[in-house]
Amino acid sequence: MDAPIPDLAERADACAQRLRSADSVVLASHIDADGLTSAAIAASALERAGIPFRTVFSKQLDAEEIAGIAELEPDTALFTDFGSGQLDIIAEHEAAGDFTPVIADHHQPATADDADGEAAEGADAEAPETEFHLNPLLFGINGASELSGAGASYALARALEPEGGDNRDLAALAVVGAVGDMQASGGELHGANERIVEEGVAADALETGTDLAMYGKQTRPLPKLLEYSSDVNIPGISNDESGALRFLDELDLDLKSDGEWRRWVDLDEEEQSEVSNALIQHAIQKGVPTDKIEGLAATSYTLTDESVGTELRDASEFSTLLNATARYERADVGLAVCLGDRGPALERARQLLRDHRRNLSEGIQWVEEEGVNREENLQWFHAEDRIRETIVGIVAGMAVGADGVDRGLPIVAFAEKSEEEVKVSSRGTHSLVRKGLDLSQVMGEASRAVGGDGGGHDVAAGATVPAGTEAEFVERADDIVGEQLS
Ligand code: C5P
Ligand code: C5P
Ligand code: C5P
Ligand code: ZN
């Protein structure tokens, strides 16, 4: 970056220096879209810099996982998209001489008093610290909305550029990571993320534009695009198969080719604007409020090197494709796609995507049918083994706004992890965060009070707790949220 954030760039330089002098590096990353793109960015930069490394993935970085990394006896361990929340454990390994840690992350750092369950207040002065720690939160940048793990990894990649090298092409993956972590709030990326977008555009890896804010513009046939898109609810079209078909049939446009419905990307600009205008007219007639209608337009992030009409062309569809791999124990497939495999890995990822989509839609349907339980300050559901623990957070987030789920309260979701352990995911809204909500603190404190552990971001966080402690956990979490919002 053209030193827009000088301190962050300086820390990235120090981290790069350390990596260049390493004999062996283990690169460890998280199993979601941001984690995969983080790993791909770091791997590409290490490769281009001629630094030998191997890559491992982890669902949840805990003491056991970190010990496993130490057993690989790396000289340097590079953690991407996690590590900050586990600084205490990582620092112990560093002190024992197991490895030198380099961390490129955006989660809230563990604090010194986390261990005894005392109130933790973000990155305070007593927190365990390590020299090569690259985290936007340490430099006044919001880690939940302005820079993702992939963004932190991208800053590192820029610092790792060999003489005459240019890693700006990796900005495209950094944008996929940020979009995958839901950082494009209000329809576009903000802050440090915007800087990365500019670099990607300058490097011809990205294009941006104002476009219809619907998921699936590259791959979905038009009727499905309209029917499935519910971020802005348009009566008579959203979740309405025949309504969506009727709407398209009534337009004076040739929207089929060889009898098959065309996709959004198959339309030329004029056709796109006719469909958009008709949609807006329809929404106005159905009484959709103006601010909601404005939400029909958003910034699109297009990966220019990818083929038109593929999941990879659009940052949002790309990120879902990646979640479909890593959250089902196939991070290797997602990583290969990020690194350029357009053959077997992409084909496998597409199969996994079909299953992932089905799981998401069945999960949301289940939540709608069963309903949520309301406490004073939050709402919750327990999916037991009906929703996979690796996607229960995505389902919880997508369920907000569904029938019977209150947009004004944070949502907490439980799912079985094993016989002994339960996964907790929580999601809030930016408007609740502005009122004081910090789910990272809620998940951290409530979980430690019942013998578990957790953390994350203010707007989205998670935890693992012992089975059977859910009721006590809910009570604690409800109290903490109450204090935060009071
Ligand atoms: O581990 P990590 O940081 O990658 O995950 C962030 C999670 O938080 C994602 O699942 C993302 O969808 C969620 N999130 C959210 N709403 C936001 C920001 C993040 O649901 N506004
Ligand atoms: O939580 P995470 O960032 O992984 O979720 C990906 C997001 O992509 C969902 O929250 C949802 O907004 C969107 N999505 C969608 N339709 C799908 C899959 C994902 O709208 N079939
Ligand atoms: O797993 P889930 O999608 O609910 O995670 C939401 C956020 O909380 C992610 O950023 C994840 O990395 C973080 N998290 C954490 N510690 C946990 C569980 C989740 O930091 N024990
Ligand atoms: Zn992340």
UniProtKB/TrEMBL annotation:
SUPFAM superfamilies noted in UniProt: DHH phosphoesterases
The DHHA1 domain, residue ranges: 387-482
Gene3D superfamilies listed in its UniProt record: 3.10.310.30, 3.90.1640.30
Signal peptide from the UniProt entry: none
InterPro entries in the record: DHH_CID (IPR048515), DHH_sf (IPR038763), DHHA1_dom (IPR003156), SSDNA_exonuclease_RecJ (IPR051673)
Domain DHH-CID per the UniProt entry, residue ranges: 214-296
Any one Gene Ontology molecular-function term assigned to this protein's record: nucleic acid binding
A UniProt-annotated Pfam family: DHH_CID
Designated name of the protein: DHH family phosphoesterase
